Amino acid sequence: MVRWTMYPLLCSLLVGCVTVKETSNNKEFNSIEASEARIALGLRYLETGQWQRARENLEQALKYAPKYYRAQNAMAYYFQKVDEKEAAEDMYKKALQDSPKNGDTLNNYGVFLCGEQRYDEAITAFLKAIEQPDYYLTSASYENAALCSLNNGDKQLALRYFEKALSHDPYRPKSMLQLAQMKIEFQNYKDARAMLFKFNKRYGYKADSLWLLIQLENQAGRLTQADKYADLLKEQFPDSQQYQKYLANEY
C-alpha cells in the first residue's frame, strides 16, 4: 500500500501533446514557458520508456532555465527512474542550493532519501518542506513522513504523521487506509471501524477497504460481519489480490 507523493512532476504536465515553438526573437522568447514545454515532453517520454528522448528534452529544459526548480526536479526524477542515484542526489542538491526554501524540491528529495533508507534525513526534508510559507502540499509531506517512518519500523511516529496528514486533509485516501490498518494492528477496532466507514461513505467500497474490514471483524470476533464483507469483496472485486488473499486465509 506504500506509494510516494512527488510534486509537482507528472499530474499537470502529462495532459495532451505539447508543441514546442521556439523563436529567435528574444522579446517573444520566454525561457520558463520553453522549459515547461520540454519538461512535459520529457516526462511523457519517460512514462512511455523512451529514455533517450526523455533525457534530451529534460536537458533542453535545463538549458532554457538552468535554475528553474521544476526542470531540476524533473531531471532528478529521470535519474531516479534510470537508477542513477548519485546523479539524482546531485541534481536535488543543486536545486536546493539555488532554491533552499522550495517545498516541492524538499519533498521530492525526501522521497529520494527514504528510498535510499536514509530515514532521518528524509523525514527532516519532509518536515522542512512543511515549514515553508509558500508550500501548500502539507498533507502529502506528512503522509510521506509517515510512510518513511513505517519503512524505518517506527509505527508510533508513523501513526502520528498519518494523523497529521488527515488533520490537514481529512479525506486523504491513502492515509485513511494506512491509519485504519495501524489501528487494527493496535487492536483499536472502534477507531479503525469508524475510519473505514468514513472512507467507504466518501469513496465507496474498494478492495483495500473491504480487505481491512474483513481483517478487523475477524480479529474483533464479529465473524458474521466479516463474512458479509467477504461476500462484497467476492462480488465487486473477484480478481483482486485482496480476494485471493482471503481465499488463501492470509489474514
TrEMBL record:
Transmembrane segments: none annotated. Keywords: TPR repeat. SUPFAM superfamilies: TPR-like. TPR repeats lie at residues 35-68, 69-102, 139-172. It comes from the Bacteria. Pfam families: TPR_12, TPR_16. SMART domains: TPR. This is Type IV pilus biogenesis/stability protein PilW.
